[in-house]
């Protein structure tokens, strides 16, 4: 049985077109840079992101951590909002792999307060660590897209101090689609960027780290050290090419579907939808805790072939993607209504 899965866009399985491309892909040993399909994916991604070079990596976490390792020296401090992915969801890897510290900057849904950022750059004092990097995220995983003007202001402030900026762009195509801009117009305000192929873009595996020739050649060696030098990875890159060329252009459909779902949930009276954070493919809503027994709700939906995530920080999150259309949303809402009638 194929579930209707609202837990995340990471659950997306590859399309038939991807499976066909994978089974007929040309591959080679990518540690020798011999895999034509990986080379093609990296080349095309560099073009789209407006960067000199790119590197295929197994996961988004790997790509972010590789960027931290390549940009910084041991003991450096990285400036970042405290609710970014590298802080919350990467197992504290920055401390283990790069031996760096974090210093938090004031922010709202990924949008950094510039005066606070400026006050947190370290001066050249014998007591201070060196500020090694500023780390940003767009779209932010709380559903919000950071405006271009803020990305530009962060970049200018960092440049004045000669500090590089890394962008966690796991969902950058979602952000660009929301802004109505080319991704290039976002990535010109960072020195390196990580993008995920395996979320809303449907590839089974893979992320990409992009930056200058020099940065990527150092990252290539660090990737090998981290155990991420892969061999015939062209079979995966074949799906990735379809992700960036084709799937990246249909994300407005997922965003429209999220708004469609958000409206229905708000009107149902059982949820308070956080509609100011409904920029991309994620609907966050607060259920009435007295009305809802979450164990029962999740169990009821599971029986009906629907998967949802448990409540986190008082919120439910429903994520739309390629495998969820209006028909699936209508069925989901029907089953929700049924649940509230019964319990
Ligand atoms: C998903 C995600 C990542 C990393 O993804 P994995 O491939 O699961 O390691 C990084 N940053 C953000 C903002 C994400 O949403």
Description:
The structure is a single chain. This protein has 343 residues and is an alpha/beta fold. The protein folds into 2 domains: 15-247, Aspartate Aminotransferase, domain 2 (3-Layer(aba) Sandwich), CATH 3.40.640.10; 250-342, Alpha-Beta Complex (Aspartate Aminotransferase, domain 1). It has helices at residues 16-23, 36-49, 60-71, 85-88, 93-98, 114-120, 148-160, 172-179, 183-187, 213-225, 234-245, 251-268, 294-303, 326-342, and strands at 4-5, 53-57, 77-80, 101-104, 107-108, 111-112, 131-137, 165-169, 192-196, 207-211, 271-273, 282-287, 306-307, 316-319. Strand 7, helix 7 (148-160) and strand 8 form a beta-alpha-beta unit. Helix 3 (60-71) crosses helix 10 and helix 12 packs parallel to helix 14 (326-342). The longest helix has 18 residues, at 251-268. The chain is globular. The two termini are 26 Å apart. 45% of the residues are buried. The chain binds pyridoxal-5'-phosphate.
Keywords:
343 residues; alpha/beta; Aspartate Aminotransferase, domain 2; Aspartate Aminotransferase, domain 1; seven-stranded mixed β-sheet; 14 strands; binds pyridoxal-5'-phosphate
Give the SSE order as H and E letters.
EHHEHEHHEEEHEHEHHEEHHHEEHEEH
Rg computed from alpha carbons, rounded to a whole number of angstroms: 21 Å
Using the 3D structure, state the CATH architecture of the largest domain.
3-Layer(aba) Sandwich
CATH topology of the largest domain: Aspartate Aminotransferase, domain 2
Percent helix range: 40-55%
Structural class: alpha/beta
Shape: globular
Report the span from N to C terminus: 26 Å
Q: Name the CATH superfamily classification of the largest domain.
A: Type I PLP-dependent aspartate aminotransferase-like (Major domain)
Helix run count: 14
Strand content: 15-25%
**Average residue-wise pLDDT:** 96
What are the segments in which pLDDT stays under 50 over at least 5 consecutive residues?
Answer: none
Strand ordering within the main sheet: 2-10-9-8-7-3-4
Highest-level CATH class of the largest domain: Alpha Beta
């Amino acid at each position: 049985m194929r579930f209707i899965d609202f837990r995340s866009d990471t659950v997306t399985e590859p399309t038939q077109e991807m499976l066909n491309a994978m089974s007929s892909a040309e591959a080679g040993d990518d540690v020798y840079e011999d895999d034509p399909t990986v080379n093609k994916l990296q080349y095309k991604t560099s073009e789209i992101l407006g960067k000199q070079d790119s590197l295929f990596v197994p996961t988004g976490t790997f790509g972010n951590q590789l960027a931290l390792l390549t940009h910084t020296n041991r003991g450096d401090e990285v400036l970042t909002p405290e609710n970014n992915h590298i802080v919350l969801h990467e197992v504290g890897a920055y401390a283990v792999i790069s031996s760096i510290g974090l210093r938090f900057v004031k922010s709202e849904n990924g949008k950094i307060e510039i005066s606070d950022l400026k006050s947190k750059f370290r001066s050249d004092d014998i007591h201070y660590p060196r500020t090694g990097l500023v780390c940003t995220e767009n779209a932010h995983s709380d559903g919000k897209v950071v405006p271009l003007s803020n990305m530009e202001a962060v970049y200018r402030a960092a440049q004045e101090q000669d500090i590089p900026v890394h962008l966690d762009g796991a969902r950058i195509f979602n952000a660009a689609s929301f802004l109505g801009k080319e991704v290039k117009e976002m990535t010109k305000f960072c020195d390196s960027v990580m993008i995920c192929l395996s979320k809303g873009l449907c590839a089974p595996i893979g992320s990409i780290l992009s930056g200058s020739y020099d940065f990527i050649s150092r990252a290539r060696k660090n990737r090998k050290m981290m155990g991420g030098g892969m061999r015939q990875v062209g079979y995966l890159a074949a799906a990735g090419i379809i992700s960036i060329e084709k799937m990246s252009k249909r994300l407005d459909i997922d965003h429209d579907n999220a708004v469609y779902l958000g409206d229905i949930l708000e009107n149902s009276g059982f949820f308070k939808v956080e509609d100011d954070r409904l920029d991309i493919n994620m609907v966050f809503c607060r259920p009435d805790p007295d009305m809802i027994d979450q164990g029962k709700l999740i169990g009821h939906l599971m029986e009906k072939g629907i998967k949802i995530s448990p409540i986190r920080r008082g919120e439910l999150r429903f994520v739309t993607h390629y495998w969820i259309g209006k028909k699936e949303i209508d069925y989901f809402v029907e089953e929700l209504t049924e649940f509230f009638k019964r319990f």
